[in-house]
Structures are given as structure tokens and as C-alpha cells.
Amino acid sequence: MTKTQQHSVDIEKWLKLIRADSVGPTTFGKLISRFDSVDQALGASVSELTKIDGVDFKTAEQIAATRNKFDTTAELELAEKLDVWIIHLEDKRYPPVLKQIYDPPPILYIKGSLTRQDSLCISIVGSRRCSLYGQEQSSRLAHFLSSAGFTICSGMARGIDTAAHQGALSSNGRTIAVQGCGLANIYPPENKKLFELIAESGACISELPLHYEPLAENFPPRNRIIAGLSLGTIVIEAGLRSGALITARAQL
């Protein structure tokens, strides 16, 4: 892990707060807005927590009871083993464009590197059950855009996403994969080699704890990160209720 890939200062405190029960990105943002810092939010009383919009007494009790339970030592040890670095929203290395979305992830787990070039990022997303033509077009567009200096962002899912990452790699360009699970769980498993190649020449990213499973409910929130990192989104062969269209709507 290089000097530029060290964990953020005070990352343990950020991990404890975001992993408390009933605290997601939106509630986390409200906590920081109310208490000005992670330290003060971690020390707030139940009574003080109930003053936050949307936090009732029961929720405040849950937050207070669980905000120091996450095993940050084990998480950081595993991160070191996997060569993953963890940054928070106030770190200057956090992607500036991602800060601008409605509910930016307070924490990012990163395997690989982020560079200035990634500010010129285009996402390519689409169906897992795509046609051969769709795969070819995804790969071709990614190769062309990557050759022109754009970073290609996608979700490393089967089908269109996989083809987009492969197209970027074929031009020796940069590509970013945003996972809907922890980075210790590569999904889909057959993309393990692709995951490694992306990390070598770009980055694999997640907002979820390292061992978090690829549950269905993780993927719609993941799509806002893909959109948030990108200047624009190209959708290829997506169904009306697909995650690809969720990404496209998040881009608007």
C-alpha cells in the first residue's frame, strides 16, 4: 500500500458511526450536520439524537447502543491483508464529483488507485442477460472512450458491465468497478481475474463492509455511486425495471 493509499485519519470513528444500527448515508449526513463532527455524533445522548429529523426515540436508542460495536480492528486488519484502503468523505482524496450527489457514501473502500484522470469518467451499464451484439457494443464503446482518455465505470456484473470493463482494459485504459458487496466477496465469482486486472490498472470500490454479501438490496444504492462518479451514463439493453435505468435516473 503506497503513501497515497493509506486509510483516512480517524477512519475508525467513521466506521463505528456508519456501522451503527439505523445509520445509513442519509442519517449519517444528518448526524454530521447536527453535531458538526463524527466525535460529537458518537458522544451524543439519546435525547440529543432524537432532535434529528426522522430519528425517533427507539431509533436513537438503537444508534446509541450500537455505535461502538463494529469491530474496526478486525476490519482494518483484513483491509491491510487485501491491500484495500479506506477513506471518508472529508478526505481530500475522496472523489470531488461524488461528494455532490444527494447522499454520498461516508466511507469508500478502494482496491487499486484513484487519479485525476478519473474526473473524466463515463459509466456503461446494462443487462446481465444481454445479446452478443450488446456485449460487442459495450466493449467497443468502452475501448473507444478509454482510448480517448476517459475512465470507464461500471458494476462488474455479468453481461454489459463485464464487457465494458474488458473493453477499457483492452485499450490499456483505466476502469472503475463499483461492487454491490464487500471487496472481500468478489461478485460474480467468475470475475475474480477481471477484479484483479481492474485493481491493477484502475480501482474496485465499495461502500460496504469487506465481508458484506452481494444481497439484492445492495445494488440499487450501489448504482448511485456509479452515476455519481460519472459525467454521463451509456445504457445498453436494459429492462424497464433494471438497475441500469436506476443508474441512468441517478445521473439526471
TrEMBL record:
Gene3D superfamilies: 3.40.50.450. One of its GO terms (biological process) is DNA-mediated transformation. Residues 86-250 form the Smf/DprA SLOG domain. Belongs to the DprA/Smf family. This is Smf/DprA SLOG domain-containing protein. It comes from marine sediment metagenome.
